[in-house]
Amino acid sequence: MQVNSIMKKYSDSVVLKGVSFDFKQGEIVGLIGSNGAGKSTLMKIIAQTIQTYDGSVDDNTHVGYLIEEPKLYSNKTGLAHLTYFSEIYGNKFNLSEYEELLKGLQLSDVLKRKVKEYSLGMRQKLGIVISLLNKPRYVVLDEPTNSMDIETSLEVLQQLRKMANEWNVGILISSHKLEDIETICDRVLFLEKGNIVGEQQFNEQSQYVVKLVFENPTELALFIENQKFGSIIDSSEKTIQIETTAENTEIFQFLNQLGIRVTDFTSEKKTLRNVYMNKLRGGYDDTKYQKLC
Ligand SMILES: Nc1ncnc2c1ncn2[C@@H]1O[C@H](COP(=O)(O)OP(=O)(O)OP(=O)(O)O)[C@@H](O)[C@H]1O
């Protein structure tokens, strides 16, 4: 799917300012950004529930979506919802096709219960299954795990990964739960004030951000000239930061070979939270998260 230069205005306020990106079937792409950044608006445009905007979205004819709360009927059972929504999409609901998914989401045993007896998380999970009923090539999920506990979120994320792999569905998922995004996504887009301001690719290997402080600029220059650990993300007179998959011991051995002793060394696992906070939000202030009462 190709999203081209999307612009959206509400009255005088421009909430999307020319957003472009693409994503493939089978790929899971995360969308993160502050409150009001424009994530839901962008997702509604892709899902075609908003139709007035500038720009274009190619290949969005087979899109399933769950944006905000799922629209459910409290007096109807889960099964009745699946039958009803399948019919809306012109299909007959075939339980065997969705059995594994429903089981994986712990919904099989509650399908005959009325939705008014469902917890928030169960409703959300039913909404996810409904979004998959029209055999979509792409699914857009706006904060699908926001009302779920850690274990339930993980169950859902596992099932979404399976859907992406086995049904070749491309998934665009937004969340403020960065750990969820990090667990499931192949790639993450950062949306701020209506613009995509960054992108992060995930690979299998752990990445570290290593900071080294040298005794003098000459030693720093010697290190830069010879190092093959990874890309340099920042450097000053005696300090350097690199992104690397190397373990600390490998770096120390290398420094020994060069005859260099550093005056400080820190290594931090690169998480989505520290990339997001450091690069895009001007730093991560840990003190804000100290006990507040
Ligand atoms: N129907 C609407 N009419 C007017 N303004 C709207 C409408 N829907 C959204 N907005 C405004 O558009 C901006 C983007 O909202 P949107 O819901 O897309 O952000 P978001 O990134 O999904 O936020 P959140 O993380 O809080 O869900 C906000 O300033 C919001 O107030």
UniProtKB/TrEMBL annotation:
Q: Which Gene3D superfamilies match?
A: P-loop containing nucleotide triphosphate hydrolases
Origin superkingdom: Bacteria
Which positions fall inside the ABC transporter domain? 1-218
What are the GO MF terms of this UniProt record?
ATP binding
**UniProt xrefs under SMART domains:** AAA
Q: Which family does it belong to?
A: Belongs to the ABC transporter superfamily.
Protein name as catalogued = ABC-2 type transport system ATP-binding protein
